[in-house]
Structures are given as structure tokens and as C-alpha cells.
Write a structure and sequence with these properties.
heterodimer; A: mainly alpha; ABC transporter involved in vitamin B12 uptake, BtuC; two-stranded antiparallel sheet; 20 helices; elongated; B: alpha/beta; 33% helix; globular
Amino acid sequence: MNEPTELPPWLEFFTFSNVNVAFVFVGCVLLGMSTGVLGCFAFLRKRSLLGDALAHAALPGVCAAFLLTGTKNPLIILGGAMVSCWLGALSVEMIVRHTRCKEDSALGMVLSVFFGVGIVMLTYIQRTGEAAQAGLDKFLFGQAAALIDRDVWTLGILSVLILAVVALAYKEFKVFSFDPEFAAGIGLPVRTIEIILATLIVVAVGIGLQAVGVVLMAAMLVTPAAGARYWTERLGVMLIAAGTFGALSGGLGAYISYLSPKMPTGPWMVIAATILFAISFLFAPRRGVLPRLRRHFRFRRRTAEENVLRTLYLLGEPFEQWSDSYSTSELLQYRSMPTAQLARTLNRLIHKALVSEPAQGRYALTEFGVTRAARVTRLHRLWELYLTRKLEIAPDHVHDDAEEIEHILTPELEQRLAALLEHPDEDPHARTIPGRLQPGESGA
Amino acid sequence: MSPETPPPIEVHDLTVAYRHRPVLWDIDVVFPEGKLVAVVGPNGAGKSTLIKAIMGLVPLASGHVEVFGRPARQTQGAIAYVPQRESVDWEFPTTALDVVLMGRYGQLSLFGRPKRRDREIARNCLEKVGMAEYAKRQISQLSGGQQQRVFLARALAQQTRVYLMDEPFSGVDAATERAIVALLHDLREQGSTVVVVHHDLQTVPDYFDHVMLLNLRTVAFGPVGEVFTPENLHKTYGGRSHLLSEVTERLRQKEWIGRQ
């Protein structure tokens, strides 16, 4: 607070001149990182809901610990939270084993019952007037700014501990998450691994209580992992990405808490994590929605191009020469598509030098265009022949299938197909199948 | 292979129950060394359960399993297990080579990382199933048959002499089927014992030496030429023993919890 020059608070934060602020910030970053990394295993094992149930189950333990000891010592609070998390986990297991309820119902029941009991206890504490000084209500939605030194130390050390355990037992966690029965088969102590993973989640929930709160803690376990999954096909990279997302979210929560100390931090951390998830979901190169839409759109464009090429080829085929040009209405007679789409497609084909510049609104294939058109026609007819000859489908049923397959066959598949059909000359409708290379053409 | 050598797998009076309902009754079987054994039976006959019981993956209501004469509990890792392909989520973020490398984990120390030698073994095993060029491929991008071959390679990487395979031929393409058959023959030549849950009765005489006909209890076990007979098949598939099913149903209602 004793700055020589006055910076606006949103900027002053980044000077980290306030040691306490820096301390809380680092704590929240570590917390986000450890929950993000740990959450990957819950996510991959499809146990995301367990984190949510455990977080809610922590509340009665927190209240009980306070009621019994009257202190807010982080280790005592954490102990209370862990005991009640364990009771919650145990209840889930018992319900699944001894009733007809499946795991999802058991999780739902445990989550709400424990949370309800917790709220009752919290209300009781508030009635007795101790809540203001205890600040227990912060445990609902978290408040990073309320963290004091010993809280941050506990949180930081345990976060690092979680990361260390994951780093150490990476191989065991990996095989256990992928194929637990196989892991048991090679003699790994799967029951112990499962208990360690559950304990780590309980610890993560416990240390996140003050900063994130019980209500939203699960999001810090699930959301970074769900976002990270979009970027990679490697578990190691996924853990690093989820850790990074979690750290960014935790950092943002601490930042907001500094700017507006009355604001709960948990929701902000969750919003940050969700924005990162949305970015991943939309833009991640292979799995993201937009790149996939783009690939889809490109494929549709190529399909339209190849359809027009094949139409021009069919028009010239009876005369075995393709220098004649055709108007768009003539083309549309053979291949129905929206007029505007035809115009756009023709423009692209001209641009690619597959169709020559129109003369009086009439279009013709270039020499290069004839080669490409012949190949598409060849693939179409090869596929029709394959369907009729090898799969014994009636000739009048095969055209529509070939319409789709002609666009996706690779040269390698084409060769295998031709070899399988013993390099045929005619399709099922007794039309010539163009050869791999047009006579007199050099393009392949 | 001297006569004194204890057999690779010996199952004594094994009974397994799911939810109070016995699914395997009094199974006694000795799988002989160096043979390819098919386990055959209708759906729900307990074939997979038998495999899992031998692996120690399901609780036994009674009986015990010995591996090379020692209790199965002490010999974990001695048997390579190939679970059904559908038992895992192939969307898991990992590569084919990584999955095969998991076959080495049992030999590594706790927390130990795979070494270069383990990678070499894993790569060799992928090659043995004709999957060398797919080592770096994300597993969700493999076809069903290729995924099955990755599972087989993972078992090979364990470098053991006993293999339990749960329906490896189920839903695979012709190339994979040929690859698996070739692999089985290789394993037999090396003196390994392979027990395969199999669903295609037609290929049993071609692929296997011994056959176990199973339907809640052992209907017959022995060399294919002797026990793979129409009468035995009829006994296995021709409707379950009505009395036995009725008794198991009653046990379920009485909340039977196993002997002793």
C-alpha cells in the first residue's frame, strides 16, 4: 500500500508489490494446476461426478470441525472436510453395493443429503453469531482474498504434493485409467491406486474449499481436463494443458478477488475455466468444432466441383471429345443444384484452370480438366461395378452410393479396387470406364 | 516339459457367483502346457467369467486356481491377459505403441519408467502382429481388428508363457484373423499355453488342439478330436439344463453368498 507512485489497482496487482497478494496469487495458481492435472484422471475414468459429490460432501465436515474446535485452522478444517468426504464416498459405495440404485443415483443422493446437512449446520453456526468472525460462509463459493498465510501455505504445499504424486505414479495412473482389469492382471495394486486417486481428489477438494468453495469445486476438476482433451491425443500433453488451464483460472480468480474483495472467487475461476473450455471446443485444430466445420465445408465444395466436372465429362462423352462448351442451363439439366452454387463452383473451377474462361456464357473443360473429370468418372464407375459384382447389389441401386464414394477414394484405394475387379473396361451400365491416364494427356 | 512340471493353469472346484447367482459351477480343469485351448459355449455360459476368475479379477465363491503349481495370487504377471476389446474406451488419449508398452509395466519397478529396451520389445511385438507402421497412431483411429492386434501385442510384450484371450476373434477383419492364427501357432511353437474364449464353432478344429465345452459347468474337456463331438455340442448348446437354471434362480432369491 505504500507505493511511491499510485498505479490503478488492476495494474498494481501485477507489480506484486503487495507480498500478501502475490502469495495468494501463487497459491491459487498452484491450486488450479493441481486440480486441473488430477481432474484428467477423473475425466478419463468417467468419474467426473464423483468430484462434485465429494466436494459437496465436505461441507458438513467443515462445519463439524468448526463446531467441535471453534477454530478455523486450515488443517483442522481440512481434516473435517476429508472425514466427511470419506463418509460420502463410502455411502456411495454402500448404496451401489447393497441397493438397486446405480452409481449416478447414489452420487446424486449423497451429494444432496450431505450438502443439505452442511447447510443446516452452517445456518446454525450463523444463528449463534459466530459466522462473521468464522467466515464459514466463504466455504460455499470461496474467497481467495480471505486466505491468510497459514491457509496459503497449506494449500500450496498440498498442491505441490498432489502434482508430485501424479508425476511419480504417472505410469500406474495411466494404465489404471485406461484398462483397470489389465492393470490388475499384470500385478499392479489396483485397489491401492484407486484409493490413492480418490484420496488425492479429496485433498484437492479440501484445499480448494476456501478459494473455490464446495459448490463449484467440481468444475475446477472437470473443466480444465475437458478443455485439454481437445488439444491433444497424448495423456502427458493433456495433463500439462489441463494444468495450464487450471493455473490460468486460479490466477484469474485471485486477481478478481484482489480487485473486488467482496466478490466470491469460485465463480470467477469457473468462468475462466469455462471460457478456456469454450475456446478449446471451438478452435482446437483437430477436434474443435470450427476446424471440423471448415473441413466439412471444404469437402462439400470439392464434391460440388467434382460433380460439375463429371457432368461436363458426361456431356462430351458420346462424341469422345470435350472441346464443346455448354450453358449453365444445359448443365443444370444434367445435374440439379442451386444456380448460385453452380455459378460459384464454375468460378472456382475456372480459377483452378479446370474449366476455360466462358465464351458467351458457355463453359468447357480445359485439357487438364478433362483428365480430372475422367478420374472422377472412373472412380464412380469402378465403385458401381464393385457394388454390383462383388456385393451383388442391383445395377439400378448403385448410382447414389457411387455419387458419394467417388469423392473419397484415394489413388491407393483406386488401384486396389481396379485390381480386385481385374482392370475392367465397362461399368454395370455398359459404359466405358476411363483409364488411369487419358490418351494424349500428360497429367496423372 | 518333463512330466513333473506342474501345469500352467490348474483350476480346482471353482464356483463363481454374481449377485448371489452362481455363473460357474464346480469347474475342475487342467490346461496342459504348450497347447492351444478353445473355451466354447453359449452366451452367458461363463466363459469370460472363467478367464477373469483365473486372473483373480472376480471373487471366487469357492475353489482355487494354481499357476505352475503355485497359488494364482502369488504369480500375478505370470499370465498375459487379453481382455475383450470393448472393455476399454478407445478414445483414451494415447498411441498404439504406448498401449503395447503397458505390457512392460508389470516388469518395471513401482514408479519406474519404461527404458529403451522396453520400447524395443514393444516395437517388436507390434511388428509381430503386423502393426509396426501404426505405432504412432492414436488408438481411436485404428479399426476394430487393428485395436485387437494392439491388445495382442500388449500381451506379447509381457513375455510370459501363458496367455488368456477373451474373444480375440470377435468382430475382426480377415487380415486380423489370419494374423491372430499365425501368432497362436508361433506361441505354440515356443511352448506357450494359450487359452482362447472362442465363439466360432466352425474354426475350432482348425485353430485349436484342445477344447473346453462350457455351460455353467464343464460339459467336456480334452483334445478337439475326442471331445468336439455333436453329442457334446448338443449337451453344451441344446438348452441349458432346466433343473440347474431353476436352482441357480432359487439361490439368487435366497441371497446365497457362497460356501463356508
